[in-house]
Amino acid sequence: MMAAGQVTMTSGDPHLRPTTEDQVRDAVAWAAAEKTPLEIVGHGSKRAIGRPMQTAETLSLADLKDVTLYEPDELVLAAFAGTPLAELEALLAENNQRFEFEPMDYGPLLGEEPGRGTIGGMLAANLAGPRRLKAGAARDHVLGIRCVTGRGEIVKSGGRVVKNVTGYDLSKGLAGSWGTLAVLTEVTMKVLPRAQTEATLVLFGLTDSDATAAMSLAMGSSGEVASAAHLPESVKGRFIDGQLPRAATVLRLEGFGPSVDYRFERLAQLLAPFGPTERLDDALSRQLWQEVRDVKPFADGTMRPVWRVSVAPMEGHALVAALRLKAGIDAFYDWQGGLVWLRMEAGADAVGLRQAIRAVGGGHATLVRAAPELRRSVDVFEPQPGPLAALSARLKAEFDPIGILNPGRMAALKAPEPA
Amino acid sequence: MLKMPEPDADVLARRKSIVADLRDIVPGEGVVDATNEMRAFETDALTAYRQMPLVVVLPETVEQVSRVLRYCHKNGIRVVPRGSGTSLSGGALPLADAVLLVMSRFNRVLDIDYANRAVVVQPGVTNLGITHAVQDEGFYYAPDPSSQIACSIGGNIAENSGGVHSLKYGLTTNNVLGLEVVLINGDIVRLGGKHLDSEGYDLLALMTGSEGLLGVVTEITVRILQKPETARAALIGFPTSETAGQCVADIIAAGIIPGGMEMMDRPAIHAAEDFVHADYPLDVEALLIVELDGPEAEVDFLLAEVEALALRNGATTIRVSKSEEERATFWAGRKAAFPSVGRISPDYLCMDGTIPRKELPRVLAGMRELSEIHGLRVANVFHAGDGNLHPLILYDANKPGELAAAEAFGADILRLCVKVGGVLTGEHGVGVEKRDLMPEMFNEIDLDQQMRVKCAFDEKHLLNPGKVFPQLRRCAELGRMHIHAGAMPFPDIPRF
Ligand SMILES: Cc1cc2nc3c(=O)[nH]c(=O)nc-3n(C[C@H](O)[C@H](O)[C@H](O)COP(=O)(O)OP(=O)(O)OC[C@H]3O[C@@H](n4cnc5c(N)ncnc54)[C@H](O)[C@@H]3O)c2cc1C
Ligand SMILES: Cc1cc2nc3c(=O)[nH]c(=O)nc-3n(C[C@H](O)[C@H](O)[C@H](O)COP(=O)(O)OP(=O)(O)OC[C@H]3O[C@@H](n4cnc5c(N)ncnc54)[C@H](O)[C@@H]3O)c2cc1C
Question: Which residue has its alpha carbon closest to ligand 2 atom 34?
């Protein structure tokens, strides 16, 4: 397979770069014996997310790479954890298939090159994109995994078939665990046919709250809308080379040509009360949704804090309105309003943000970009209430009793509470 | 027969005072200890196994659930959660020394939120109850187990249930947004909500399909969908199951994901036709029902493609539904497959393996051989689109040895499924039924790690013990690490 992008690490420490699963196990078992914390990296493309850690060693999966199974007719693909995502997406495209959940690329937002990242990192970060509304996230498409736990043991879960309830679903359980429970060594995913074509319906000039109502109406219709986003006035100029003249509410339709055309007409009728509609055809539509996916407006080369906020879809705009009264922010909405990308003009204001989230009925916020000093001083991931935090700590301890895998990345370092 | 954990003699001896203590927590009719009244709960839909519980408790509030669990935790009393008792794997089978915690009084729909497409319900609401609550506005809850009239949504969470529509719309796990769970120590935790991705570790994923071993679900937030504009089905007969299997593969390979794609073999077709008179062709070896849903233009376009693929694979009959009544008739036989098999045999065992689709011909051939070896008949219904087989093994429990033969036959089928790259259970759960087959799929290290997940939730193994794991190991023992300290043992791992 092709060469992985070279890893550049800030510390200058030599990395452990296993090329087999057994070597991963040996490395973790050694680290456990020595009580040496390990930072787990794929390509290091999302290193800027989460709490900065102090780890003595870095375990890079970048050389454990290859496709181990790809049967397009069976809609299944498996690869070693360090296989570049870009390579897998190219392979799928050759066969007219894709990861339906559209994993986002954090590179541009974090000031790194685009197109890096591994399949292990994709699952460890539970990546998703604008199609989240209809197709779910990486967790919804993982079929099986192999991993090395912090105990230095090779464990498998799941398989290669879609319907499987044999034992606990550890494959999904490791999704979004950011390398803190186990080191993934192999990942098996469900893949799906690419849509034949797509189009985007655009409504112009809506307020955030009217846009929310329009998106809700569209998503509650039988039009099979795949994605719904609202790009307010302040960000509209940074999409599709400045071709959006005003605030734009965008709805994506995908499928067979005649079906897309038919649904477009129906949707335009349904949304007529919100004003005239325009249509972006295939290529422009694809460009737009990739830019929404990768948070183009805030990929500005700065380290101004960026939050990724997940709330009930109808509440996103209310949250933003409340925050505007208190701080300088810029924001746009994906997932029908339920995913808010927030860029702060100054401080991160974690406390104020989290209060505001509670006030709109709950959800959570992750600080995905900030200078290291700031990441050290705030809770990057949503703090959890006592009993839930205790349960999470017990779960961590059952996978990684000594605490050597990405210690402190998701939660500040604390001794696990007794059961 | 399977061995269940030894009843705790001390708990049995304390039964009277335990019942009294539970009555303090759940007053009125909520505690049932009379033998004749408990009889209704002694089995689930795996009726070969029966056991009277210590006592039945029917709580009404989350505070009661929390207090009951905290009490049991403190006093070392086992607890078996139960929804509607339709489990086919014995998941809700009582234990002699355990409280049976029946969630049927949690039967309210709490919040219907069309704008966010979310519904909040209590766990005792039936699967179909959710759709009934929202259908006037054209919405429905997508996962549709055949037992949907009866089974509870709490049970669906515990089993990660699926249905005909799971091929396109996912299983329970893909349609749940949030849960309230009471842990065995009485702690109440909330996971997720109306937002799309839950925070922290994906405990929603671990809870879904955990078969009542990790916690008691007391509230559920699910996603609802707008009904597709149209749905039409094609009924297609094939001279061999191989050609039917190839047709399924070709449909998927053509980029078509039908709303449902089901297959029945000859014995199942005949049993269903005798029972519901769906006008199924009787001169075919395999029958395929392919349902397309969506806008009319798309459905028509795709049905034409499906017909062409069927003809290319030698289909001998093709009928496309022209009305809702006709579509319902096509499905009537499939939906009644279990009861119709129940008519032609005194008893049957329903198996639930999943295989890679392409292995279907090999597995069907293997099953025919096994049928001869074990001397028992088998009828097959099959969620063809996602490779989930339901072989129904026909036997007569009154004939000595037949239950044992049926179980041995079933175990052989599941071993075959695993051998070709599949799994032991696609949607019915491990329960007691497949518990002892777990080592066919997992080695000791895999199973120990799964048990450690259990330990994070329930370190005394009080919730639903004897299910899922062939052998229970103490959490303290599982937690121990055998560390081989020493010099860097891997000079061969590259570093740069
Ligand atoms: C929750 C979280 C918090 C983070 N916090 C910090 C931080 O505080 N400071 C910092 O510098 N970097 C942080 N990172 C970044 C991370 O440590 C790596 O930089 C990242 O894995 C780079 O790999 P990649 O480019 O392949 O990205 P990905 O491979 O996409 O990796 C993303 C995440 O997945 C994990 N991961 C990657 N491969 C595997 C695997 N095979 N098995 C298990 N886990 C894997 C990484 O540890 C990382 O946490 C964090 C990442 C995550 C997910
Ligand atoms: C005729 C028939 C057809 C079926 N068809 C299908 C099908 O198409 N697809 C499918 O997937 N299944 C099917 N099933 C199996 C069964 O209906 C499902 O497994 C269902 O989800 C069980 O729900 P229940 O409420 O009856 O749960 P029960 O049988 O009462 O319990 C099942 C498990 O869930 C646990 N549990 C129940 N409630 C809770 C709770 N609130 N909290 C924690 N744990 C709980 C129990 O401890 C037990 O382990 C069928 C069963 C029958 C009899």
Answer: B155
Task: Output the CA–CA distances (angstroms, integers) from residue A171 to A131, A175, B445, in the order listed.
Answer: 21, 7, 16
Query: Residues of B106-122 as b/e, b for ≥16 C-beta within 10 angstroms?
Result: beeeeeeebbbbbbbbb
pLDDT band at A408 (very low <50, low <70, confident <90, very high): confident
Nearest to A312 among B160, B189, B195 (CB): B195
Q: Is the separation of the CB atoms in B68 and B99 below 8 Å?
A: yes
pLDDT greater at residue A381 or residue B15: B15
Which band of pLDDT confidence, cut at 50, 70 and 90, is reported for residue A11? very low
Distance CA B113, CA A48 (A): 37
- A164, A352, B267, B379 from B469: Cα distances, Å: 16, 46, 34, 29
The Cα–Cα gap between B496 and A143 comes to 33
B-facing residues of A in 271-300 (CB < 8 A) are: none
**pLDDT above 50 for A416:** no
Cβ < 6 A, ligand 2 pocket = B 44-45, 80-88, 91-92, 103, 123, 145-147, 151-152, 154-156, 158-159, 161-163, 211-212, 216-217, 338, 427-428, 464
Q: Which of A164, A227, A405 to mutate to test the interface with B (most CBs of B within 10 A)?
A: A164
Torsion sign (Cα): B357, B177, B207, A398: positive
- Tokens standing for B432? 């007691």
Which atom of ligand 1 is least distant from the CA of A127?
A: 30
> Chain B partners of A264 at a C-beta cutoff of 8 Å?
none
- Cα distances (Å, whole numbers) of residue B420 to A161, B102, B281, B426: 11, 39, 31, 15
Query: Given this model, what pLDDT does residue B398 score?
Result: 93
Alpha carbon distance A34, A46 (integer Å): 27
Could you tell me the distance, in angstroms and rounded to a whole number, from the CA of residue B483 to the centre of ligand 1?
26
Ligand 1 centroid – CA B179 distance (Å): 28
CB A198 within 8 A of CB A220: no
Question: Are residues A126 and B197, on separate chains, in Cβ contact within 8 Å?
Answer: yes
Select from A133, A140, A387 the Cβ nearest to the Cβ of B187: A387
- Whether B228 and chain A come into contact, CB under 8 Å, resolves to yes
**Mean pLDDT in chain B?**
94
CA of A62 from ligand 1 middle (Å) equals 12
CA–CA min distance A22, chain B (Å) = 10
Summarised one tens digit per residue, pLDDT across range B388-420 is 999 999 999 999 999 999 999 999 999 999 999
Closest partner CB to A164 (pick from B183, B354, B495): B354
pLDDT in tens, B122-162: 999 999 999 999 999 999 999 999 999 999 999 999 999 99
DSSP H helices in A99-230: 119-124, 132-135, 170-173, 208-219
A357-360 long-range Cβ contacts below 8 angstroms, 24+ apart: A357/A309, A357/A311, A357/A319, A359/A322, A360/A311, A360/A312, A360/A315, A360/A318, A360/A319, A360/A322
| B479 reaches A (C-beta below 8 A) | yes
Residue nearest to atom 44 of ligand 1 (CA): A179
CA–CA separation, A358 and A367 (whole Å): 17
Mean pLDDT of A265-273: 97
Q: Model pTM?
A: 0.93
Structure tokens at A35: 């009580």
Interval B15-31: pLDDT, tens: 999 999 999 999 999 99
Q: Which residue has the tokens 């319902």?
A: B328
Q: What is the structure's pLDDT at A190?
A: 97
What are the tokens at B73? 């935790």
Task: Closest CB to A14: pick one of B450, B485, B495.
Answer: B495
ipTM of this complex: 0.95
B482 or A347, higher pLDDT: A347
